[in-house]
């Protein structure tokens, strides 16, 4: 492979091969990358694959699975550090950050972004985990974290493991419950994002909040 070729020009197979190539020949790495893509269907699915299924492929193992998960975690931390103390007034930036953190979960996860009075990023917290279709949400726990960080505003978010980002009636009810609880301490809910696979819905943009 030409070293002058930008990574953005590589095929999915060649890019994945570069990630798993450590101590492998280029041809073997590409064969394994092709097998991964054939088994799971996409790069997204490869990174989201269960450890046991990933390691079933001969020539791969826990160390290469850990390598991929480390890359995913680096990407998450890069995005989080990029928005530290920034004003989150762009829904596209917020949606990208949340999608990176939440779309890979195989069960539903409810999270909050805590902001100060200027809507600057204070913290991101994944607070509640559930099943493949729901997660219990306790407003008092969100209030507790708001008090810890002295937040003035919050952005809610959760993923739909099904991949479809359309808000449910339950999503709307939970949003209102959290809004009502936070209103008692003069904290605003600015938005609620529902994260699917390759799609995100903003309650604010839909006029639902």
From TrEMBL:
InterPro entries, alphabetized: MPN, RadC_JAB, RuvA_2-like, UPF0758, UPF0758_CS, UPF0758_N
A GO molecular-function annotation: metal ion binding
PROSITE patterns associated with the record: MPN, UPF0758
Oxidoreductase in keyword set: no
Domain of life per record: Bacteria
Pfam families: RadC, UPF0758_N
A Gene Ontology BP annotation from the UniProt entry: proteolysis
Stored Gene3D superfamilies: Cytidine Deaminase, domain 2 (3.40.140.10)
Keyword Zinc: yes
MPN domain segment(s): 87-209
Keywords: Hydrolase, Metal-binding, Metalloprotease, Protease, Zinc
Family affiliation: Belongs to the UPF0758 family.
Protein name per its UniProtKB record: DNA repair protein RadC
Organism: Opacimonas viscosa
Upper classification of the organism: Bacteria, Pseudomonadati, Pseudomonadota, Gammaproteobacteria, Alteromonadales
């Amino acid at each position: 492979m030409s070293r002058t070729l930008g990574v953005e020009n590589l095929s999915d197979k060649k890019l994945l091969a570069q990630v798993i190539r450590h101590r492998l020949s280029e041809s073997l790495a590409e064969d394994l990358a092709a097998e991964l893509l054939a088994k799971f269907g996409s790069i997204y699915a490869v990174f989201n694959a269960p450890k046991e299924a990933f390691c079933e492929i001969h020539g791969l193992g826990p160390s290469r699975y850990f390598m991929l998960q480390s890359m995913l975690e680096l990407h998450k931390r890069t995005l989080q550090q990029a928005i530290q103390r920034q004003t989150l007034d762009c829904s596209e930036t917020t949606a990208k950050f949340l999608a990176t953190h939440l779309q890979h979960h195989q069960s539903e996860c409810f999270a909050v972004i805590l902001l100060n009075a200027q809507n600057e990023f204070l913290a991101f917290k994944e607070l509640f985990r559930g099943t493949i279709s729901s997660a219990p949400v306790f407003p008092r726990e969100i209030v507790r974290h708001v008090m810890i960080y002295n937040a003035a505003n919050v952005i809610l978010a959760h993923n739909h493991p099904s991949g479809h980002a359309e808000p449910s009636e339950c999503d709307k009810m939970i949003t209102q419950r959290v809004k009502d609880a936070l209103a008692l301490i003069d904290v605003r809910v600015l938005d609620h994002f529902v994260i699917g696979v390759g799609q995100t819905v903003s309650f604010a943009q839909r006029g639902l909040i």
